Amino acid sequence: MTVTRRPLIAGNWKMNGLSGDGLALAEELARRIEDSADPDFDLLICPPFTLIQRVGAALAESTIALGGQDCHAAESGAHTGDISAAMLADAGCSHVIVGHSERRADHAETDAWVRAKAGAARAAGLVAVICIGETEAQRDGGETTTVVARQLAASLPDGATAENTVIAYEPVWAIGTGRTPSVTEVEAVHALIRGDLAQRLGDDEAARLRVLYGGSVKPGNARELMSLTDVDGALVGGASLHADDFWSIAQSSA
Ligand code: PEP
To answer: How far apart are CA 134 and CA 170, in angstroms?
Structure first.
């Protein structure tokens, strides 16, 4: 049986956006999706924590999903500055990014920690967007497939399904650099991820689970990347801050 996976285009605003520009961007995207009859893709916006509720209000009548950029693994407690998955759900989020390479680097997050966060997201009813990907040194050392397989194995929580999990393959060296792997390389890593998911979750679940590509996705390269068999959408950083670019990437995925 052939499974059709609906593309997901996720915008990671990172530490960008104040109420003026952030809300204007969310409102513009909500307008575009409302004006497009039945688009063949899903959109997700992950604003900074400070804008979640106001962006959520701007998207209230829209099909665009709302997500956090991170959550703590604990339900609550003495974790100053952190946000729990339940808090994100309470603020209107349906998704949360975990294990982004910037958090792995800036906050020394390990695979085990990412796995715990993904488990917390599941427990709170959120979809975890689990990021994995090799550094440039690992790529140059020919370790891409080993690193990606190891991160996937160690970051995927028990109970992961196509409904509560999305994987984002993001080569660290491609994030925010304007560089991307060749389509052949992206294709090979995504096929590896799909194969690993099949071994862990079974063929049916793996065939339905969305695997996104992230790393310098732009309007100019999106169509080629999104056309690859095992690429089911994109996690977009810089280009998600511009309505025209983000929208153009989304349209390229359909
Ligand atoms: C990201 O932050 O996940 C990302 C892919 O960033 P960019 O699109 O800017 O490379």
So the answer is: 8
Domains of the chain: residue spans and CATH:
8-32+40-253 (3.20.20.70)
Cα torsion 104, 107, 112, 117: sign: negative
- Mutation choice for ligand 1 from 235, 245, 248, CB with most ligand atoms inside 8 A: 235
Report the SS3 class of residue 235.
Answer: strand
DSSP state at residue 172: G
Ligand 1 closest atom vs CA 217: 8
What is the longest distance spanned by two Cα atoms in the chain? 49
Residue 128 and residue 117 in contact, taking contact as beta carbons nearer than 8 Å:
yes
Element (H, E) at 67: strand 65-68
Whether this model's pTM surpasses 0.85: yes
10-residue mean pLDDT series, the chain (254 residues): 88 97 98 92 98 97 97 97 98 98 96 98 98 97 97 96 98 97 97 97 97 98 97 98 98 92
